[in-house]
Amino acid sequence: KRNVGIMTSGGDAPGMNAAVRAVVRAAIFRGCKAFAIKEGYTGLVEGGEDYIKEMKWQDVRGLLSEGGTNIGTARCMEFKERWGRLLGCKHLIEAGIDALIVCGGDGSLTGADLFRAEWPSLIQELLETNQITQEQYDRHKHLYICGMVGSIDNDMATTDSTIGGYSSLERICKAIDYIDATASSHSRAFVVEVMGRHCGWLALMAGIATSADYIFIPEKPSSSKVWQDQMCNIVGQHRAKGKRKTIVIVAEGAITSDLQPISCKDVKDVLVNRLGLDTRITTLGHVQRGGTAVAFDRILATLQGVEAVKAVLELTPDTPSPLIAIDENKICRKPLVEAVEKTKNVAAAISERDFEKAMSLRDSE
Ligand code: ADP
User: Fold this and answer.
1) Residue 344 CB less than 6 A away from ligand 1
2) Nearest CA to ligand 1 atom 5
3) What share of the chain is helix, strand, coil (3-state, %, to 5)?
4) Stated pTM of the model
């Protein structure tokens, strides 16, 4: 029986609470103890009962639909340093935790993988400096890690969806539906900026779901002349056919083919100057992260949480850490390191303008 810790880390995403609930209850169901590690890696670095708390069945009651993460999340610079991870190692051992499930984005999962790889040297140092006993050393020789992807961006390689992606998409679509009404009333154009970092999934899917006139995504850059001509042409045609509203969606990572960011202001200026449209900018901001999780994210987080507990209980010292994914509608395990590497390679290829490579990496997922 392993003692299982669950942590949410990095940017918050609706469905993280459902993941915590599933892990806690699946662990208890299997006769293990479950622990919440609060405030992401900060909880590991700080340690103690304020940050590492045993969770009982009732402690996660009502969490299934709640947005955000009740156990907190944070960006923790100390964990990027070896001394921070050494403290993390000590605090996990003090709490008696053998397995750690991390629900976060690619940064959090990179940290988790590094932590496991470094564990033997960290625990050795703790023993040599008498910070842990030989008995603790023998029991905690290995740390078992499992990743779950919580991210609104849906930007992780090897999994079709990330926990929070569809909730955020739903929020964006609702917001654009609201904007539609006022846009039509005044015959205005709206330029809407959406989140997603290097990934255009949210922008593209929101554009399809709301029949936007034009969409900017990082994966399909063009020269300033090309996008300006193309956008004006399309919007002009729609207007000529009597459409009274114009919606243009700009992903926050959108860039031109010479790597310049495309801002909502750039897009607005073109719509005003070339088409004479009364144009407003709407930046949805953190509204996109908030609210309750949609059914898909609740189900995804629950099924993946159950699988994550199963995975950490089956892991041996020699098996690579798994990432719990969804592939063609099936919950499955993928190698964590490969998923994180691939995600980073796609982002790097996009920012280096090697779009063919980026697309082939995505296609081969
Ligand atoms: P996300 O998980 O959403 O991608 P971040 O990239 O901010 O978010 O990562 C969240 C946290 O994960 C960081 O604040 C840090 O504590 C930890 N982390 C990220 N990258 C590393 C790394 N290379 N080594 C160790 N810890 C890391």
Assistant:
1) no
2) 107
3) 50, 15, 35
4) 0.94
